[in-house]
Amino acid sequence: MNKTIVLLLAFCAGFSIMCFELLGGRLLAPYFGSSVYVWGSIITVFMLALSIGYLVGGKLSLFKPSLMKYAFIFIVSAISIIPTIFFSEAIMDAVFEIVEDPRYGSLLASTLLFLLPTAIMGMIAPYSVRILTVSKNSSGHTAGFLYFVSTLGSAIGTIITSFYLVLWLEIDQILWLTVSIMLIAGLIALVVNFKKSQPSSAS
Amino acid sequence: MKHLIIFLILVFLSLNLSARTIHKERSIYRNIVITEKNQRRCMRFESRQRSISSQACIDLDNKDRLVFEYTRSIMAGLAIKPLPERILIIGLGGGSLPNAFSKILPETEIVSVEIDPAVAKLAKKYFYYVENDKIKTSIKDGRVYIKRAIKQKQTFDWIILDAFNGDYIPEHLLTKEFLAETKQLLTPDGLLSANTFSGSKLYDYESVTYQSVFNNLKFLRSPTKGNRIIFACNCDRFPVEIVLDEAMQNKLLPFGIDLSSLINRLSSKVDWDTSVSPLTDQFSPANLLNH
User: Fold this and answer.
1) Optimal mutation site among A28, A31, A86, interface B, most CBs of chain B within 10 A
2) Architecture label for domain A2-202
3) Nearest alpha carbon to residue B139 among B112, B163, B115
4) Tell me: the pLDDT tens digits for B231-265?
5) Catalytic machinery residues of B
6) How does pLDDT run across B182-214, given as a tens digit for each residue?
7) Cβ-defined contact of B142 to A33 (cutoff 8 Å)
8) Whole-number Cα distances in Å, A38 to B17, B28, B30, B125
9) Torsion angle, CA of B128/B135/B178/B79, rounded to 10 degrees?
10) How many contiguous H segments (helices) and E segments (strands) does chain B have?
11) What are the extents of the domains in chain B?
12) Coil, strand or helix: which one is A122?
């Protein structure tokens, strides 16, 4: 039960990360165009953010890992996406003003807009591994299955966003959708944590 | 299996026979090939699809003649805006538009914006595109150029959008916000011309978007091909009657342009679904709509 839910939540995180990344291209295009280097900037920043997230998430899992803290990561990541919705234009306007070269302009704008939320979302994967792992022997299997699920989430997030969501919704609406997914995922983790700590369900 | 491979090789060879490849250039975006057939030299984006469309062509026997119907159609703008001082072209291609303008309007400053440096290089090498103090090229994304030009308080009398030939449509160049930016860059009464799609649902969306930014529009629909030139002005209304200037008519003949027939074909008929929503930076699934 617990395991299925953690996997489902990791799936949601994978979904949201790629959904967010694809929208990144849309957000930057009006200011920096859609040249290859704009995508290069976005992918660089996402990969960098994820690597930082993995590192921090792994470290965090050393200290009294709990579903409560796990839920907290989801909720914070949801909140960290919200500034992108409200301030992306102002931020890109400022960057456009300061940086002439669209390569470094798009790199700076991507960093300001996407680094923090993506790094927080990146913390989820290693933390999920810690929660799921029951023994040293099965840890590789657990990690492998978790990567399978969260990367599958990323694949589905990519295709759903690029094939359908951009046709049905505005960018800000899709961003609110990812915020909601991460928030609901966090709340689910909280509920599970709360139920577990109740003596009735523990027996 | 073996037969199939031989068959495929034969098909491939016969395809290659139809036009001779004289140059191949690698670019950061795609491979570009220069082909020649029957004294016609063309620039193409390499693609596995068979129906590759040429980006630019030149007639080697008559280099002035504009080979594409749509480039000739754009010249109808000269009837609306006979003496532009500065022209901005988004999408250089082979440079046939700036080349023609430099001959028709020697005093005019022509700035072409091209995203792909390899295209600009090939335009100079194979399509007789020449830069000088009147003819300039900027290697940039069109939208980035326009945003920067607004900040520098530049203005243009005529802006031509010709970045829509490839198989991928630059979606950020179709939105209401982008058109509002081009309008900001136009002088009062300045003219905007755009080569647009008309073979898909995108037609309705694009028309509604142009309509939402510019008050009134005029069109030149291609009788044979699936495109349409939109003319829009930074003014309240287009002149009711566009008068043919005989001198201009004669000046355009060597380029294969019959100005009077272009003027006669100009229409302002609304023939699209006006209920669709305009494309915006928030909503611009142009590539999905073009299927």
Assistant:
1) A31
2) Up-down Bundle (1.20)
3) B115
4) 999 988 887 678 888 999 999 999 999 999 999 99
5) 162
6) 999 999 999 999 998 777 888 999 999 999 999
7) yes
8) 38, 13, 16, 28
9) -90
10) 11, 11
11) 2-59, 69-289
12) helix
With CB atoms and an 8 Å threshold, state whether A29 touches B172.
yes
Q: Going by DSSP bridges, is the β-strand pair B54-59/B40-45 parallel, antiparallel, or unpaired? A: antiparallel
Instruction: Look up residue B97 and give its two tokens.
Output: 């538009």
pLDDT digits (tens, 9 = 90+) for A99-148: 988 899 999 999 999 999 999 999 999 999 999 998 888 899 999 999 99
Q: Which CATH class is domain B69-289?
A: alpha beta
Calculate what percentage of chain B has a pLDDT beyond 70: 91
Which residue of B182, B279, B282, B288 to mutate against A (max A Cβ within 10 Å)?
A: B282
Most distant CA pair in chain A, distance: 64
B57 phi and psi angles, rounded to 5 deg: -140, 150
3 state DSSP class of B38 = coil
User: Cα separation of B207 and B184, whole Å?
Assistant: 19
Domain boundary assignment for chain A: 2-202
**pLDDT-derived band at B286, boundaries 50, 70, 90:** confident
